[in-house]
Amino acid sequence: MKLVMVLGAALMLIGFWGLITRRNMIKMILSLAIAETGLQLIMIAVGYINGGTAPILDSAVDKLSAVQQVVDPVPQALVLTAIVIGVAVNALMLTFIIRLYQKKHSLNISDYKDMKW
Amino acid sequence: MVRKTIALALMSGLAFILAFILGDWSPMERLSGVAYDYVTRGAADLGAMNLVTAIVVTYRGLDTLGEVTVLFLAASGVAVLLRRKRDEAAATVKIKRAASEIVTTGASLLSPFIVMFGAYIFLNGHLSPGGGFQGGAVIASAVLLLFLAHPDYKLRHNVLNIIESFSGFTYVLVGLLGLFLAGGFLDNRFLPLGTYGTILSAGAIPLIYTLIGLKVGTELAGILENMKGRA
Amino acid sequence: MDKEKDGVLATIEEARKSFNEQDYYCQELPKTVQPVANKIVRGFYNWAQANSLWILGFGTGCGSIELPPLFTPRYDVARFGIFPRPTPRQAGVFIISGYLSVKTLKRVIRSYEQMQNPKFVLGLGSCTVNGGMYFDSYNTINRLDYYLPVDVYIAGCMPRPEALMKGFETLKEQIRAGKAEGANHYVENLEWYKANQKQIIKDWDMPEYNW
Amino acid sequence: MDGIVLKVVYAILSLILIFNYGMLVIGVTAKIVARAHGRIGPPFYQPYIDLLKSISMRTSVHHGVMFWLGPVFRLTGGIGLYMLIPAVYGSEWLQNFSFSGDLILVIYFIFFGMLGMALGAGESGHPFSAMGIMRGLAHTTASEVPFALAIIAVAAQYHTLSISDIVAAQQGGIGHWTLMTNPLATLAGMLAYLGMMMHSPFDLHMAPQEIPVGPVTEYNSSYLALMQSNRSIFASAKLILFMNLFFGGATSIPEMVVKTFLIFFFCVFVGVVFPRFRVEQSVRWFLKLPTMIGVLAVVIYTVHG
Amino acid sequence: MVNPIFIPVAALGMAFLLPVLERFGRKTVNVLFFLTLGFFTAASLIWLNDFFMANSPVLRVFTAGFKPPLSINLQVGSQEAMLLAAINVLSLAGAFYLLPHLNVTGLKARVLFLLFTLGMNGLVMTRDIFNLFVFLEITSIASYALIGMDVRLKSLTAGFKYMIAGSLASIFLLFGIILLYQASGTLNIDGMIASGVTLNDSPLIQGAAFMLFLSLFIEMKQFPANGWALDVYQAAHPGISAMISAGSSGAIFFALYKIFPLAGENWYLAAAITGSTTFVISNLIALRQRQVTRLLGYSSVGQMGLLLAALGFGFYVNRGRDNYAFILAALFFNHFFAKAGLYWIAGIVKKERIEEWSALRRNPVLLFLTGLFILALLGAPPFAGFWGKWALIMNLGREDTFWGVALLLFGSLLEAAFLLRWFGLAMRGATHDDIQPSPAVREIFVTGLFALISLTLGARFGYMRLTADLWTYVFPLILAAILFLFEGFSVYLRVMASLVVMLFFGFYLYPLEQGLAFYFSLIFIGGGLLMLLATLYQPRRSAGYYPLLVLMFSSMAVLTASKTQLGFFMNWELMTFSSYLLIIRGKKSRKAAWLYALFSLGGALAMLAGFSVLQLIRPGAELLADLAYAGEYGGVIFTLISMAFLVKVAALGWHIWAPDAYAEAEDDLTAMLSAILSKAGIWGLLLLAVFMGAPLWHSLSLNTVLGWLGTLTAFFATLYAIFQEDAKRLLAWSSIGQVGYIVMGVAMMSHLGWLAALWHTLNHFLFKGLLFLAIAGVIHRTGTRNMYEMGGLIKRMPFTFFSVMIGIIALSGVPPLTGFGGKWLLYEALIEKGWYLQAGVAFFASTIAFLYCYRLIHAIFLGIPKPDQLQVREAPFRILFPQYILIAFIFVFSLKPAWLLKPLSAMVAPYFTPTLGWQGDTAVSSLGYWNGTVMMILVVFIFALVLLNLLWMSRGSKKVKPFNIVYAAEKPDRPQTTHYAWHFFTPYQRAMRPLLKPLIRHFWQGVGEWTATGGSVLRRIYNGNGQSYAMLILLLAIILFALTAGA
C-alpha cells in the first residue's frame, strides 16, 4: 500500500506543479483535479488494512470475524463525499471559465489581472 | 524563468513536507477506533450489508445530506451563473454539428439501459458497491449521451425540477421521520430493518439512496444542460 | 493707447481716489494757535525755541551741500543747539536750500505742513528770493514766499556756511523777539498760499492741508 | 500709613534726583563726545532746553488712543523700573519701592515701557515705526540673553535674587565686587549692557540714515517731551542696576554718580569707536561671544552646584 | 428550546422546495425565504436568551440515533449561541439589504443565500471534523456562486481566484483530516481533543495538524496567502462582501477556535506570529490603497489577523483562558458588525475611490454611521474593540510578550491611518460631482441596526470590564447622548442644554475630587462652560457639535477623577476622538485632523504599552496608583505613558500636528484646544509625577530629560511663532511654547516648580483663551486669518483690541499682570533647582515671545486699515463677553496673586515641602520675593500720574487720519504697501536661520514616507495573477512548516 501512498503524494505534487505552472485555466483546474485524485488515493491508502477486503458483509465475509477481514470503511465513505464535492467545485469552476471566456476570449490566467495591489 | 525557478523551489519545499509527513507512514494493521465499532455493529444496527453505505447514509448521514447540498449548490450556482440575460440571446452563435448516425442510434438504444443500470446501482446501494451518487452519475451519463447525439435535445425542465425538488424535500422529510419516529435525524430505523441481505432491508436506506440517486441524476443532468448552452 | 493698460491705470487712479474719499486723510484745515498769554512764560518758551533749533533734514536743491559743513568742528552749530532731525514731526526749522523745482515744491509743502507750530523757514540762496540763475526756467519757482512764509532769506549763490550761521543768528533773534510767527501767518493766509501753490502744481492729488 | 506717605515722599525726591542726574549725564556726555570730535559741542544743559522746547510746541498731532498712550507707558515703565531698584545701598530714601519685587521683576519690568511704546508707535501707521520696533525687539531679544545668563550666574553665586542682598554681599572693598568674584558673569553682563543701552553700534532701532528715528517718527511736541524725560530716567535706572549687580553698588550719592558715569561712559566710548551693526549681525553677535561667556559663567555654577 | 437540527432541516427543506414554489410567484418565495431566515434568527436569539439569562445546559444533538463518535453531533452552547445569533442576524439583515440584487438574479440566488447561511450555521454547530469540512465546502461554494452571481468580469475573476485558493485549502484540510483520523481513529473533535492524540510529536500527527491549520489559516486569509481575498472583497457586491467578511470569516474563525485545542505549543506561536504579521502588513499595504472596497478588504484581512493573533496569544501564554474568551469575543463581534456596516455603506454610496466619498457629506446620517463604524474598527470606546484590545494588551504585558504588544499596536496605528484618511476625505474632501448617494430606507435601516448593535455590544462588554466607578467613567457618553436629543433645535437651546448638563456633571464630580484634581477639573469644566458660551457667536452650528464638545470637556474632567487605568485610558480615548471629530469640522482641516488623530492615537497606544509593562511587574494592577510600584521598569513605563501626554501638550518632537490642527480647526474650537485640551496632557504628566516620582533611565533622570524637552519646546515653538503670517498659526506655536514652560515646571519636581506649572496652567488658560477668542472675533468679522491682510482694526474693534492687549501683556509676562507671576515662580524654581542653563534658555524664549506678541497686535490692530475693512464692526457681544470674564480673572489674580498662590501652595504641599512663604502679600521664596499687589498699585499710580500729565500737556492735540504720516515727503499710495506687516521679522529670520531647519518635520515626513513606501513595495506581491496567489498559498505552507516544525 505504500506504493499507493507514494503515488498519491506524487499525484498531488504533479497537480500542484501544474497549478502553478500552467497558464491555461482549464489546465489549472485539471491540475487541481489531479491533486484531488492524489489525495483521494492517499485517503484510500490510509484506510487500507493489509490483506483486507471490501467492507461489504456479503457471503465473502464472515459477519462475525469481519473485523479481521475488511478494510476500514470510514475513509471510503469520506472519499465518496470528497469526490462529490470535488465534482461540484469543478463544475462551478468550469462555469466560471465559460463566463470568463465569454468576457475576454482568453483562457490565460495572466490576462485576468484587472485587480491587483 | 524566474517563475519556473520559484515554482521549482516551492515544489521541492512541498515535496519535502510531504516526505516528512508521510515518510514513516505504514498501513494500519487492524481496525481501531470508530471503524471497529462500525464494522462490528453496523450490520446489526442498521441491517445494511454494505458498511460504507451504512456509514454514508446513516451514521454520517448529515455529511451525505451536506454532500447532496453541495451538489445542489453547484447546480444552482451553475444555473445562476449561466443564466441568460435578455440581451445575450442574440449574441450566442450556434456552432453545432449534428452527430453521426452511429452515435444517434447508439444513444437511442443505450440510454434506457443506462438509466436502468443507474437505478439498479442506487437501489442496491445497501447490498453491494454503489449507491445514490454513483447511480445518479450513471443516469446523468445517459443524459450526456443524449446530448452528444442530439445537440438540440431539450430536457423538460419542469419535470426535472419537480423530481429534483421532490426528492430533495422528501430526503429531508425522511430524515425528520427518523428524528420523530426513531433515534435521531436521518435514523433509518423508523422503517423495519427487514431481512438482512434483501433489497427491502436496512430500513430507509434504499429509500434514501433512491431519493439521492434521483436528485443527483437530475442535478447532474441540469448542470450538463446548462453547460451545453440552450439552443 | 492699449486698452488693458488703460484699465490698470484706471484702477490705480480709482484706488487713489477711493483712498482719498475713504477717509484716509484728515480733511480739516488748521487753525492759528496764539503763543502763551503769560509774558514770562512766553519769553521763556521763546528762549527755549531759539536755543533748540532742529533742522528738517531735507535738502531741496544744490544749497544743501552747504549744510553738512555746519556740523563739522570748523563751524559746529551744535553749540547753538542746532541739530538735524529727519522727521518733520519733530523738526522746527525748514531750510529751503536753493532752487525749488515744481516737483519738489509739492514735497516741500507737504513737509512744511507736517511740522508743528511754531516752525520756521530759511530761504537759502538767491534762487529762493527771485529764482536766481533759474529765473526763466520752466520748471522752478521764482519766489519762495508766494508759497511758504519765509522767516529769513540768505542771499548768495551759494552763500557760505558763515552766512548760514548768520541767518540762524537772525532767526534766533526773531524768535526771541516773538516775531517769527510764520506758521500762524501761513494759516491765516492759507487761501492765498493754496491758490499760489495750485497755480504751479497742476496735479494736485493731495488733501487741501497735509496734516 | 505714615510709612507709606514717607515712602512716597522719598520716592518723589529720589525721582527728581535721578531725573536731573540723567539729564546731566546725557548733556555732559554729548559735550564729551563733541570734545572728542574736536568740537565745542552743545552746552551741558542742552537736554533741558530741548525738553522745554518740546513742551513749548503749540500744536501736536496724534493718531489715536494707543498712539497717545504709548509715551505714557514708556514713562511709566521708566519710572517704575527706577522705583524697583535700590539706588544707594544703606540710604533709606533711595531704596524706592524695591521691596515689591526682586531682580526677576526688574528685568521683566524693563519690557513694560518698551511694549507700550511699541504699541503706540505701531498705531501711527508709519512703516519706519514698525521697522524700528521690529529691529529694536529683535535686537533686544538677543542682547538680553547674555544679560539673563549673567544674572543667573550672579543669583547662583549669591544665592539670592534680591538686589539689596546682592549689593550687600559685595560690600567691603573692590575685591568683593562681582567684577572680581565673578568676572565671566560681569563680562557677559557688560557686553549685554552695550546692547541694552541701544547706543551705537547697537542703535539699529532708529538707524538715522535708514529709518530715520525709527519708532518715534510720528511723535512730536508733548509726546516727545515725555519720551525725552523717560530717556534720562530709564537710562539712569539701567546704569544703577548694572552698578548694583556688578560693581558693588553705591553707599553714597557721589559714589553712585561716579560709578554710573563710568559705566555710561563705557557704552559711549564703544559707541564712538564702532559703526552700526545690521540687525542680523547684532543678533548673531550677541548670540555668539557674549552668550558663550554667559553660558560658561552659568555652567561653572551648575557644575559646582 | 429549539432543536438545532431544525436549522439544517429548515434550510434544506426550503432550499429544495423553493424551485417548485417558484410558480406561486416571487412574493410567496420571498415570504418563505425571509420566514426561514427569520426562523434561524429567532431560534438563535432564543438560545442566546436561554444561555445567558436562564443558564441552560449546553444543547447536544446526535444524528442518526447514535452517540458520537459513531454519528455526527451538533452542539449549541453559549459561545455557539452568540455566534449563531450574530450570523443569523447578519444573514437576515444582509438578505434584506441584498433584496434587489437577489431579485435581479432570480430565485436561485435565494437558494444560494439560504445555503450559505446554513453553511455558516453548520460550521459553528458541528462537532465532527469531517462534517466541518462539508459545511466549510457548503459555505465556500455558496459564496463562490454568490460572488460570481452578477457575472461581471471583475467578480468572475475574483471568484475564480477564490475557488483556486478554496480548493487548495480543502485539499489540505482533507489531508489533515484523514491523517488525524488514522492517528485517532475518530472524527469527533471532542474525542480527538480528549484523546490528546495531537500531543504526540510523530511526523504523521504533526503533519496532520500542519495540514489542518494550514488550511484554516488560508481560509482566515493570512499573509501572504490572501491576495484572492482582497480581490473578492473588492469585486464582489458590497452586500456579499459584508456576508463574507463578517459572516463566513467569522464562522471559519469559530471553527478554528473550536479545533484549536488540538494544536500544540508551536501552533500557538505560529498563530500569534502569522496573525500579527498579517495584521501589520495588511494595514501597512492599505496605506496606499484608494479603492474603498479593497481598502475595507485590507482592513478585514487585518482584523482576521488580529483575531488569529489574539487566539494564538491566548493559548500561547496558556493562562487566563476565560479572559481570552472575552478578548476574542470583543474583538470578533466588534469587527463583525462594524465591517458589515461599512460594506453596506460602501454599497449605498457606490463610489469606488476614497476621494469621491466627499459625496457622503450631503447625507449626515450616512456620514454619522460611517464615522461610528470606523471608530468601532479603530477600537474607540465605548465599542467592544476597545475593551478587547485593552484586555489583550494587558494580558500580553502580563505574560512578557512585548513583541506582540509592539506589533499589534503598530498595526492599530496603521489601521487608524488609512481609515481616518478615508473618513477625512468623506468629511472634508473636495466634492467631485453632485451625484449623491440615495439610500433606500431598507439599507439605512439595516446599517443603523448594526450601528445600534455595535453600540449595545460595546456597552455590554464595557459593563463587564468597568467594575469600579462605572458611572463616573461613562458619564461623558451619557451626557453626549442627552445632548444628541437637542440636535435640530436652535443654537441657544443647545448651548443652554450643554451648560446645564456640564454644570450638573460638575456638581456630580465636586465631592469626588480635591487638591490638584479639583483644580484641573475646575479648569476643564469651568473653562468648558465659558467656552461653550463663546460658541454662541456663530449663529449656526452643524449637527453633533455640542454633544462632542460636552463629551470632550466632560471626559477631560473624568480624567481628573479616574482611579483606574482603564477608566483613565477610556476617557483619554474619548477625549481624543471627540476632539478629532471636532477638529475635522474646520473647512480645511482634513490633513490637520488626520495628523492630530494619528499622533494622539500613537501616544495613546504608547500609554497602553506602558500600562501593559506595568502588568509585567504587577500582574492584575488596575489602579493608577499601582504605577507607584513600577520599580526597575519605572523608566520604561514613564517614557511610554508620558508619550501620550507629550503628544497632547505638543512637546518638541510630537508637536507636528499642533500648528495645523490649531490653525485649521474652527476658531472658537481652537481656543478650547489650546486653552483647555492641552492641559489634559499636563494633568497626565502631574499624575505620572505623583505616582512615579522621578524615575531613572539607567542613570539619567527622566525628569531632567522632560525638563529639557519642555525648555526646548518653549524655545523652538516660540521661535517658529514669530515667523507665521497666519494669526491662528502664530498663536498655535505660541501655545505650544507656553505649554513647554508648564512641562518644565512639572519636570522640576519641586514645590516652586509645581507652583509655577499650576499657576501657568491657569494663566495660559486665561490669556490664550482670551487671545484665541479675540482672534476668532476678528476672523469672524474680517474673514481672513492672514495678519497682513488686516491692519488698523483698533479703531473698528477697540474692545477686541483691549482683550488682545491684555492677553499679550499677560502672555509675555510683563508685570504687573498675572503672566509675570508664572515667570517669577519659574525662574525662582529653576535657579533654586540649579537648572541654570535651562533658565537661560527659558529666558531667551520668553523674550522672543515679545516678537510674536507684538507682531500679532501690530499687524492686526495697529498700522493702516485696509479699504475693505473700513466698515467692519466690533466683534459680536457674545464672543466679547467671555473675553471680559477672562480679563476680569486676569486682573483679580494680578491684584491679589495670593488668592491663587496660597491655595495652589496647599495643593502641592502633600507632595513637596513648601519653599514659598508669605509676608503679608509678599511671596517669599528661598531666593527672592514678589509683591504683586504693591506692584499693581505702584504701576497704576504712576501710570495715572503720567497720564494726567500728558492729558494736560497734549490738550488741543489734533487727531489725524491713517495716511497723515511722514512718508519721506511723499504721499502713501495704498494701505497694502504702507502697512508693514508681511514677513515682519525677516532680518531675524536671517539671523536665526541655522535654528529654523524643520528637522523634526522632515523626520516625521520621512517616517511616513518610508512606511508608505514599505507598503507599496510589499503590495507588489499581489500582482493580480491567480496563479501567483496559488504560489503564495504554497509559500505560506512552507513558511508555516518552517515555523512549526522546529518544535
From TrEMBL, chain A:
Domain of life of the source = Bacteria
Keywords, A to Z?
Cell membrane, Membrane, Transmembrane, Transmembrane helix
**Does the entry feature the keyword Transmembrane helix, yes or no?**
yes
- Statement: the UniProt record of this protein carries the keyword Transmembrane helix: yes
Q: Where in the cell is it found?
A: Cell membrane
The protein's matches in Pfam families, at most eight in alphabetical order, are given as: Oxidored_q2
GO cellular component terms, A-Z:
plasma membrane
**What InterPro entries does its record include?**
CPA3_antiporter_subunitC (IPR050601), NUOK/Mnh_C1-like (IPR039428)
Recorded topology in the membrane = Multi-pass membrane protein
Q: Which family does it belong to?
A: Belongs to the CPA3 antiporters (TC 2.A.63) subunit C family.
Which PANTHER family is this protein grouped with?
A: ANTIPORTER SUBUNIT MNHC2-RELATED
Can you name this protein?
A: Cation:proton antiporter
| Originating organism | Caldithrix abyssi
TrEMBL record, chain C:
GO molecular-function term, one example from the UniProt record? NADH dehydrogenase (ubiquinone) activity
Any signal peptide, and if so, which residues?
Answer: none
Pfam families noted in UniProt: Oxidored_q6
> What does the record list as GO biological process?
aerobic respiration; electron transport coupled proton transport
A GO CC term assigned to this protein in UniProt:
respiratory chain complex I
Q: Which Gene3D superfamilies match?
A: 3.40.50.12280
Question: What keywords tag this UniProt record?
Answer: 4Fe-4S, Iron, Iron-sulfur, Metal-binding, NAD, Quinone
Identify the domain of life.
Bacteria
Give coiled-coil spans as residue ranges: none
Q: Which residues form the NADH:ubiquinone oxidoreductase-like 20kDa subunit domain?
A: 61-169
Q: Does the keyword Magnesium apply?
A: no
Q: Which family does it belong to?
A: Belongs to the complex I 20 kDa subunit family.
Cited PANTHER family: NADH DEHYDROGENASE, NADH DEHYDROGENASE [UBIQUINONE] IRON-SULFUR PROTEIN 7, MITOCHONDRIAL
Q: What name goes with this protein?
A: NADH-quinone oxidoreductase subunit B
Provide the organism lineage as a comma list: Bacteria, Pseudomonadati, Calditrichota, Calditrichia, Calditrichales
